[in-house]
Amino acid sequence: MKFGGTSVADTDRILHVANIIKKKIDQNHKVAVVVSAMAGVTNDLIQKSKKISDDFPNDEYDALLSSGEQVTSTLLAGALQKLGIKARSWLGWQIPIVTEGDYKNSKIISVNSKVLNESMDQGIVPIIPGFQGLSEENRITTIGRGGSDASAVAIAKCLEADFCEIYTDVEGVYTTNPAIEPKAKKIEKISYEEMLEMATLGAKVMQSYSVQKAMINDVEIYVKSTFSNNSGTHIAAEDKISYDKVITGVAYSSDDAKVTLQGVKDKPGVASAIFKPLYENNIVVDMIVQNISADNQKTDITFTIKRDDLKKTKSVMDQLKKELEYDHLLTDDKVSKVSIVGAGMITHPGVAYKMFNALSSKKINIQVISTSEIKISVLVDEKNTKEAVQVIHDAFGLDQ
Ligand code: ASP
Ligand code: MG
After folding, report:
1. Which numbered ligand comes closest to the C-alpha of 43?
2. Residue of 15, 123, 128, 261 with fewest CB within 10 Å of its CB?
3. 204 CB under 6 A from ligand 1?
4. Which numbered ligand comes closest to the C-alpha of 68?
5. Structural Rg of the chain based on CA atoms
6. pTM
7. Half-sphere exposure of 26 (CA within 13 A, CB side)
8. CB–CB of 253/336 below 8 Å?
């Protein structure tokens, strides 16, 4: 059972969470618990580090940030004991949860299940702070923002748990964000692949890396609310799901920017010359489109990147101007990416048509298109995001 930041946002909520755990134990489940920091605490710690220095050391940054989860794990252990349930906190280094890679973004490589199993065998519920680990150099590490989902999946995997419950402040995964489409419905069952696309394409419920980890290890997940008793969303392997809908959900993100190189030469090596310096500068490229050149002389290349990388990308492209002799560099950061996701589209014809037709009915212009087996994404003007999501959601009957 993993509880997110809003679920443990204050001491009342921590007492409430203790009751949820008690119910599970009363039903004879063997439980290990993973917690996030109280909502806002991690951000607050980041601000404090910035006030000390713009260049706060990464190793101390991780030790600092990990403290938020330590607080909630101890408070929850105390709350359970108050209910007469034996529980104790198990910090990342005590287990240990071993990580590798850079500070701020380490990856869990192993969890020592022995101590956790022993604890559970003795009837003592282990309460494990998410997000934190221990490097091979014996330093505290953290595994990236939102990382306690990934901690929970890693622990579920190492304990060979029957399932992993992710408790949050929404009732599950929705067909789209209910804040912009009130007709959105809760998805009962979704495959890892679809959930991964949804999370990567903008659905905020679960961190995408944790979904990837669950998929690789086949850890079944239930996303559900801490604040209601309703069943949540079940995330599982595709063969356990029957598809009655062509698409499963509509996702969107508004943190992209579009870059176009107009009039690049149409000859071998040009695309490689453009994308090499992007790679060298650690810039992740998402959609890529190259036009066919009518005259075999010149063509346009468009790609999208994260908005935060736009400044860097511009300067990289400016440096290429001499070598590539392209005509113009155009950029636009007022774009958003709207995507449909669903394994059902593999076997249904006309899905792209239906999506484009819906957009055209609202006179929304499509700037860039990209597809995979189970998703279609379009780039549209940012101001059209809400309308685009709504009209597509309707067109595919997701509100039914
Ligand atoms: N507290 C960490 C964060 O806010 C980890 C988490 O909540 O999953 O990113
Ligand atoms: Mg969180």
Report:
1. 1
2. 123
3. no
4. 1
5. 23
6. 0.89
7. 9
8. yes
